Amino acid sequence: MKFTANQIAGILEGEVVGNPDVEVSKLSKIEEGTKGSLTFLANPKYTSFIYSTEASITIVNKTFEAEQDIQTTLIKVEDAYKSFSKLLEYYNQVKLNKTGVEQPVFISESAVYGENIYVGAFSYIGENVKIGANVKIYPNVYIGDNVVISDNVIVFAGAKIYSESIIGHDCVIHSGAVVGADGFGFAPNEKGEFQKVPQTGNVILEDHVDIGAGTTIDRATLGSTVIRRGVKLDNQIQIAHNVEIGENTVIAAQTGVAGSTKIGKNCMIGGQVGIVGHITIGDNVKIQAQSGIGRNIKDNEVLQGSPALNYGDYNKSYVHFKNLPKLANSIHQLEKKIKDNE
């Protein structure tokens, strides 16, 4: 896909300074720009690179004034960073704008779907599935029976959506994600063997939810596992049965949330965090990476460590912890002096 400076300026409502007909077909960092690439300058620390970059087009703030000769064509906008982000979003929309049903696929006769749908080759759509308009289902996707997918959803290649799951508007489910697999439910029988407890619930993703690649969200034992509006889950996260995650919470990679835990709104949870089951985490909570959460957490707490402490208390404790070898040596020297004086 190629775009001219004029076309890009039209999308961004910007002003072209240089050759309006120059074309670009790829993106680059300003310090690594090559002919035919588009870049941007937003951070003043990178200003020197605009005089050496070989990028064909550079997006800059309107306030930028060149102090030396430059080769790149400029597009001047109000905010270069926001404009570049807008352009990336536009580019993705164009790139992902596929329609039609490829072959071979299997679509049950009882399935219904809206306008402008795309279904990639080797996908499977089960019985009584309801799919909205403008949905993109990439190759090798599995969608089980009675699934509901609302408008403007993107399901990338290889994702699996088990039966009864409900997907809201404008969600994105990345490759390898599994939505609705059985929860980890087993009970010992009279022989001491673990016997499976049937998992009869489902998973609900509300609107504007993003699910990262390789992330798994288990169906509820009874009722629903619920991911509320605006939640963003990174790659390789485990969400267990009957968990509820509140609106606009973000969770980084390799975090695990055990069964029936409830997480509040607007929380920020770092990578490799472990959260036990059957607890409640309040709103606006921040949990640092690699923390272990084993208790209820009140609103607005900031935590670090395993088991997790208040962030300030953790840092104070860490000062002592890292000095433990010195303290141990001091104690050893004192013990030796006392022994020598006896």
UniProtKB/TrEMBL annotation:
Residues 21-89 form the UDP-3-O-[3-hydroxymyristoyl] glucosamine N-acyltransferase non-repeat region domain. One of its GO terms (molecular function) is UDP-3-O-[(3R)-3-hydroxyacyl]-glucosamine N-acyltransferase activity. Keywords: Acyltransferase, Lipid A biosynthesis, Lipid biosynthesis, Lipid metabolism, Repeat, Transferase. It catalyses: a UDP-3-O-[(3R)-3-hydroxyacyl]-alpha-D-glucosamine + a (3R)-hydroxyacyl-[ACP] = a UDP-2-N,3-O-bis[(3R)-3-hydroxyacyl]-alpha-D-glucosamine + holo-[ACP] + H(+). It holds the Pfam family Hexapep. Gene3D superfamilies: Hexapeptide repeat proteins, MurE/MurF, N-terminal domain. Its EC number is 2.3.1.191. The keyword Lipid biosynthesis applies. The keyword Hydrolase does not apply. Homotrimer. Catalyzes the N-acylation of UDP-3-O-acylglucosamine using 3-hydroxyacyl-ACP as the acyl donor. Is involved in the biosynthesis of lipid A, a phosphorylated glycolipid that anchors the lipopolysaccharide to the outer membrane of the cell. This is UDP-3-O-acylglucosamine N-acyltransferase. The lineage of its organism: Bacteria, Pseudomonadati, Bacteroidota, Flavobacteriia, Flavobacteriales. The gene is lpxD.
